[in-house]
Amino acid sequence: MRRTAVILFLVLMLGAVVASGCISSTETTTTSSTTSPSTESPATTTSTMTTTTTTATETQYYPITITDFANRTVTIEKEPQRIVSLAPSITESLFYIGAGDKVIGVTDYDDFPPVVKNITSVGGYGQYANIEVIASLNPDLILADSFSMVILDDLEKIAPVVIIDPKNLTDIYRGIELLGKITNREEQAKLVVADMEAKVNYITSIVANQSRPKVLFITWWNPLYVPGNGTFQNDLIELAGGENIFADVSGWVQVSIEQVLERDPDVIILSAHAGITAEELCSTELANTNAVKNGMVFTVSDDNLVSRPGPRIVYGLEEIAEFLHPELFNYQPQPLVCNATSSASG
Fold first, then answer.
1. I want to staple 207 with a disulfide (CB 3.0 to 4.6 A). Which of 127, 144, 149, 241 is the partner?
2. Contact indicator for 43, 346 with CB cutoff of 8 Å
């Protein structure tokens, strides 16, 4: 059972790491209102999404031709009204830019905002989606990341396909703006990106010139897997003012307890589903690290905040920054056994 759980977890992580513009000048008139997307969003953050009514006509805006993340040229003949999303991060981005009402199909792993639970599921993530179900929905656009490239030929027989596959924060911005262009929601997309950039700039300015603690991020405990260079977790640690002790490796890798002890992290961060709690960590050999000795052990509130390449990733950055520099963000962790701390809300 544990081996099956590990394999499933690594498949999801692989999907996250492989997931690891030029704006049209067409004039549009928009009216927007800001609403809370979910009562399930992290308690330490306030998420907003835009509901928009556009007055731009199809004849003014479409057809458009774009270049996607796979360097494919795709022509969108008219404004999409029936979109199938094969990546949770893409679904979230569509709702943030006010195009959520166009989504008619999502994967089993889509869970944000909560309304997606009412949308037809097309099966697994990316290449594990059910082609027959997708076709039955009669979509006019399919959005996917590189985890769907294996089934790209089959998808293209159903509808135009656009690949959105961010590898870093800049790519996430680009992906959101591209979605805005495709769905005729450019202004809303720009606002979402501007809000993200403002939060990132604020956090990085606060931690600038501060000492950079050595950080161990535990993705999975047994066997011990950690994120290296080329992962969103690594990027977030660096932006939050820390130093990933395994930045010298690429992707998600298995490491030994001895390697961790040699690098002696100042802070340990556990994923929300790491297979071990902060309290249990105190009974392991890692109790000899500076992180555990000084009570600098934390648990992220939601793994999706630090792995999905969408608008909410800035909240993951905010949470990690609080862990690494609590004094700068008025963050007060609650002490647990052996002075380790676990945080679900800040």
1. 241
2. yes
